[in-house]
Amino acid sequence: MVDTILYFIEGPIMETLLYVFGFAVLIRCLCFAASVLVTSLRATERLQVDDILRTFVGALAPLHRLFAARPIYVTVRYVFHVCMVVTPVWYYGHISYFEMSDLEWYWPPLPDGVVDRLTLTVLFLALFFLFRRLMLDEVRRDSSPQDFILLTVTAAPYLTGYYVTHSLPAPLSFLENHMLDLHIISGEVMIVSVIFLFCTTRLARKKCVGCTACVEQCPTGTLTFQDTSDARTIRYANYLCICCASCMETCPEQAASLRHELSIRKFFNLFRYALNTVAFSRCRNCGALYAPEPQVLKIDRLLEARGIASSEHAGYCSRCKKIVHSSVGAQSAAG
Amino acid sequence: MSKVIIINTEKCTGCRMCEVSCALKHSHECNPERSRIRVVITEVDGRATFVASTCMQCETAMCELVCPTGAVGRSYTTGARIIAPDKCIACGSCSVACPFGACFVDRKIGRSVVCDQCGGDPVCVAVCPTGALRYAEADEANIHLRRAGSRSTSAAMLNVRPRR
Predict the structure, then answer these.
(1) Does B48 touch chain A if contact means CB atoms closer than 8 Å?
(2) CB-based contact A303:A313 (threshold 8 Å)
(3) What was the ipTM of the complex prediction?
(4) Mean per-residue pLDDT, A1-25
(5) CA distances for A325 relative to A315, A328, B47, angstroms
(6) Is the pLDDT at B26 greater than 60, yes or no?
(7) A 304-323 residues with CB below 8 A of B?
(8) For chain B, which domains are there?
(9) What value, to the nearest 5°, has the Cα angle with vertex A97 and ends A85 and A159?
């Protein structure tokens, strides 16, 4: 019975999953290429290919855009991701499977000691991220159950793998007997979740004022905005996004964030979807809708904090301002 | 002392030469929507009134107070308000805060723009056929403002709905 399970999960199921994984990666690359092509055909002169390439390479290199703002966190995150990829791919045990298969692939493995240390690094940093998520108030407030599930799915293969290679005593005898099964199953779960893993931009609805600074800074045209008669919608295409974090970096309200997300719907979603919708403010004089309401309120607050009677300034559309305030200015200068 | 562009509303005929020249000079495009000086036309009892409006070079500038990146500053040479294009993130805070609606986000270049007085030789002043625009010292502008205020020429326009 036990052997049958082991046979299935490490034989046909794993094989199928690896093919599905390769196919899914191909599909995602094609979707990305198609999205970029469609956008560049539609766009005017704003889409810059060299800028896209630079940010893409920059995202893979250690020097991420956010490095200057949070150097320690960015370094830790980078080390975590590198260890996460290197450990399973260059581990001798995994390579030997490929060598024994019909493919007969072989690539030189890393020494066991190094792999051990990398695994421990991954586990330690996973603990670090877990505690960070639990301890830091601002991070905990943003956390959803999915974040913890993702962390568990990520850490599980490394933890079980460490148990298997070192034959450590597990807390339960059942766990101890089936540790290899657990390792393979958790690895398979991880492979499946990587297919549906996206790193997407989110806008905090309470913070975002609809200023579209993120839209203007986005190098790929992933973020767009659409003004309807009474509201502005900021939209986002998950396949165009290269996770360069320029929206995070530029947002004056710190409303934008890049987050990992497991989503089957996004895998099939080639189109833009709405991230946030803000209502427009109405001009006091002519009644025209002219600027996002949260932004007007924010400017009001900012100016009031500086001791300036602000509602006079922000309450009118730019056309009425020219009439209303040129006369007000003239009168106050006269008085 | 810095210089400003003085607008004499009584001489303005609404020909929009300033808009066209400004757009041509700064955006190389004959598009008044992208001009940094705008002419507003209002109607009182069938009688049209024209007001040209551009950056007033405020001493305490609202745009500078609200800019989240500190992109708004002053030019060393002319003393005019400038928005540093490398710092500007096009959030439009300045255009909401500006009492005169002078700065705006140019969506084509993705930056906020404002009158920079063409670096000391404003093209709108050069092309104005009636002499409604003048480029003069700020002190002189204050005298003009007082005169204009005492006449209260634009007071009548306060409660008027502008033509769209």
Answers:
(1) no
(2) yes
(3) 0.78
(4) 80
(5) 11, 5, 21
(6) yes
(7) 306, 308, 310, 312-314, 316-323
(8) 1-54+121-164 (3.30.70.20), 58-114 (3.30.70.20)
(9) 45
